[in-house]
Design brief:
Helix content is 36%, strand content 19%. The strands form two sheets. The protein has a seven-stranded mixed sheet with strand order 6-5-4-7-8-11-10, sandwiched between helices. The chain has a four-stranded antiparallel sheet with strand order 1-2-3-9, with no helix packed on it. It has a domain at 105-233 and 249-279 and 349-357: Rossmann fold. The termini are far apart. It is an alpha/beta fold. The chain is built from 13 helices and eleven strands. Strand 1 and strand 2 form a beta hairpin. It binds zinc ion. Residues 37, 39-40, 42, 67, 69-70, 72 line the site of zinc ion. This is Methyltransferase type 12. GO terms for molecular function: methyltransferase activity. InterPro entries: SAM-dependent_MTases_sf. Pfam families: Methyltransf_23.
Length: 359
Amino acid sequence: MPPLPYASRACDPRRIAYAAELAQGTDRFHEPRRENCPWCGSARLRTRLRAPDLLQHKPGRFALDQCGDCGHAFQNPRLTPEGLAFYRRDHDETGPGGLPHQVLAARRDRRRHRADAHLMRNVGEPESWLDVGTGHAHFPAAAREVFPYTSFDGLDPTPRVEAARAAGRIEEAHIGHLADPHIADRLRGRYDVVSVFHHLAHARDPRAELRGALGALRPGGHLLVELPDPRSLFALLLGKWWLPHGQPRHLHLLPLHNLRAELESAGCTILVTDRRTPHTPNDLSAALALALTHALPAPDTPWRDTPPGPLSRALRAILSTATTPLVAAAAAADLLLSPLLRRTPGLSNGYRIVARRDT
Ligand SMILES: [Zn+2]
C-alpha cells in the first residue's frame, strides 16, 4: 500500500473511519472465549498458537485453540461479525498485500485452476456448477475452458462475485454464506458439482456451510472440498508463521479425518482423497516474508495513528530491498522441495476430497 501524503492524511476518509473504530478499542471485537470444541464438544482444549495480525498489522492479538480429541483447530475467542469485517476490510485473500510476488506466484493461477477442473472429468460432464467462496471467480473462468457446456455460478461473502458476473466469468452471482438458510433454500438441489476451495477456514460455522453445500447438490452430485492441512509438518514447525494459520481472518482449520467423517455421516461416498495436488509450494517463503515484514519498521496504513518518520520509511525501503533475495531463495527451496513434499505423508500442506451425495 503506497504511503499516504501527509497533507491528505488528516482528511483521508478511510483513516478517519479506522480512527473512529479504534478509539473504542479492539476488545469488543471478540466473543466470549468458549470452553469446548465447536466441532465435537470436547472440553480438552489447548492453545495451538497466539499471533498478531501478521499481514495487515492491525492492532489486536488472537489465539488458535486445538481440540485434544478430534484435532479441530479454531480461533478462540472468535471474532464477532463486526470484528471480522474490521480485520477483513482492505484485505484481498487472492492477493494479500504484504506478501512479495514470489510467495503469491505459488498460489493458484489459471493453469492450476484448469488442472483442478480436469480432475473432475472423471465424474462426467456437469450441467451446473457452483463455486463457493469464489472471490473474483478466477476458478470458474478457467474451468469453463475444460467444461465449455457447463453453467458456472458463484457464491461469495463479498461483492467481488457481482463484479465477476459483470465480467462474464459466471452466470449467476450470490452474495452470502451457505449457512444462511435463505441462501441455502435458494440454491437447494440445483447443482451437479459444488466446489469449495479454501473457503471453510473463513466460515463462522464450517459444519453448517458444508451441509449447505451438500444441500445445493442434486442427488448423485459431487462435492469438491480443498483445505489447508493443520496436521502438516510445516504447520506444526512454523506455527504462527505458517500462512494458512491466517490470524485473525481464519476461524477454523479442519483435519482431514473430521471432514471425511462429517461427509460420510451426511450420506456421502468419498471418491477421492488427495494430498498431493493441493500442496501449495510456499511454506518457507511465506513464513520468511511474514517474519521479515514483522521485523521491519511498519509501513504507513490507514489504521495507523501517526505516519512513520522519514528514517523509519528509509530503513524499511532499504531492508525490504536487501532481503528480497532471501525470499527469492526460500521460494526456490519451496519449489525444489515440492515434489518430495507432495509425495511424503504429513508434509503436503493441503488436502482435497471429492464426495458423491448419495442420499
Ligand atoms: Zn473436537
